[in-house]
């Protein structure tokens, strides 16, 4: 079930997203957060850092589990998701680094690393709030459109659409990894609450498909229609076809 919040500008977008995460931490300081990377949450994390600096939120007792990581990028690579999280959020708030989790993309055996991450998730218990961005092809995490989707954390081959979209962060598309480790759809759907965020006109079509279209593995985000508690934050552009 979707609770759709349409905001008017970037500032509202970021403040609303950060506000939802902050109120969770205020009522449940030991919350388990599922976090995302990409362009969408950057401003949300920035605002959370401001709230932390103002003494309005603390991550001291929180734990976090990220959705995904590229295979083959060392943690200190400028585009690794571990580095993204450290730089965009973790280094600036009081979260205990040992309570932050991102799949390892450099263990040498991606499948083993995925299985280990999945075990970690199972031990962690239920994620209280899972933050999600939305890929242009309807992916969530790196669960790409396919005939079959996988429930648990697994290795995935990235779609060309995804590699092209993410090439903007690399020198060329050839540098974009071909594979990633991602939480599976089952793990995502197990979260108590999901916060899906999308902004920009280029997301309008896929937002409408995901929220109002048929439930299909060809649009993995459409499976969110089966979840009882999804908050969706869109700007006017991304929500234009709703
Ligand atoms: C990131 C992730 C991806 C992105 C999606 C949207 O951890 O799992 O699903 O959320 O590709 O990316 P942006 O926000 O860059 O449009």
Written account of the structure:
The chain is an alpha/beta fold and 242 residues long. It has a single domain (2-235), classed as Rossmann fold (3-Layer(aba) Sandwich), CATH 3.40.50.1360. It is 31% helix and 18% strand. The chain is built from 7 helices and 10 strands. It has helices at residues 10-27, 42-53, 81-88, 110-124, 160-166, 185-189, 204-212, and strands at residues 2-7, 32-35, 63-66, 68-70, 100-101, 129-132, 154-157, 179-182, 193-198, 230-235. It has a 7-stranded parallel sheet, sandwiched between helices. Strands 4-8-7 form a 3-stranded antiparallel sheet. α2 links the parallel β2 (32-35) and β3 (63-66). α1 (10-27) packs across α2. The chain is globular and about 40 Å long. The chain starts with a strand and ends in a 7-residue tail after the last strand. The model has no long low-confidence stretch (mean pLDDT 97).
> What can be said about the biggest beta sheet?
7 strands, parallel
Low-confidence stretches: none
Going across the major beta sheet, what is the strand order? Answer: 1-10-9-6-2-3-5
CATH architecture: 3-Layer(aba) Sandwich
Task: Estimate the mean pLDDT confidence.
Answer: 97
The percent range for helix content is: 25-40%
What is the overall shape? globular
Structural class: alpha/beta
Secondary-structure element string: EHEHEEHEHEEHEHEHE
């Amino acid at each position: 079930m979707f609770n759709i919040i349409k905001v008017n500008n970037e500032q509202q977008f970021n403040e609303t997203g950060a506000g939802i995460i902050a109120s969770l931490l205020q009522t449940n300081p030991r919350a388990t957060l599922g976090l995302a990377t990409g362009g969408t949450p950057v401003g949300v994390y920035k605002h959370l850092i401001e709230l932390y600096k103002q003494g309005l939120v603390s991550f001291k007792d929180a734990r976090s589990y990220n959705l995904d990581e590229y295979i083959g990028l060392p943690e200190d690579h400028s585009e690794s998701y571990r580095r993204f999280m450290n730089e965009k959020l973790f280094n600036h708030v009081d979260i205990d680094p040992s309570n932050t989790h991102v799949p390892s993309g450099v263990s040498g055996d991606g499948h083993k690393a995925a299985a280990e991450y999945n075990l970690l998730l199972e031990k962690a218990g239920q994620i209280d709030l899972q933050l999600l961005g939305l890929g242009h092809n309807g992916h969530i995490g790196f669960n790409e459109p396919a005939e079959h989707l996988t429930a648990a954390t697994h290795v995935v081959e990235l779609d060309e659409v995804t590699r092209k979209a993410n090439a903007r962060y690399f020198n060329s598309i050839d540098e974009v990894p071909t594979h990633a480790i991602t939480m599976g759809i089952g793990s995502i759907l197990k979260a108590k609450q999901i916060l899906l965020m999308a902004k920009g006109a280029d997301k309008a079509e896929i937002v409408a498909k995901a929220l109002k279209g048929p439930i299909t593995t060809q649009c993995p985000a459409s499976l969110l229609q089966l979840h009882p508690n999804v908050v969706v934050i869109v700007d006017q552009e991304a929500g234009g076809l709703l």
